[in-house]
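To: structure subgroup
Subject: Chain for Friday's discussion

All,

I'm putting the inputs and outputs inline so they're searchable in the archive.
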Amino acid sequence: MSLAKANEKLKFDTRMTEFNLNHGLVTPEEIKQNLQSVADCSALVLMEDKNTAQSGNGEAIQ
């Protein structure tokens, strides 16, 4: 993959949005359009009670 193609894939990457906006590589309107086109996956999030959360080894987190 060429560098230009790789950069285009990262154009709206969350980690790059502020940089791209500050350097004129994207406009606020483009960011807004991109965010509206992303699927809402909030229903797939698992919410845990912090009192019952466990670490990777199965021990309760204090």
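Points worth raising on Friday:
The chain has three helices and no strands.
Residues 1-62 form one domain.

D.
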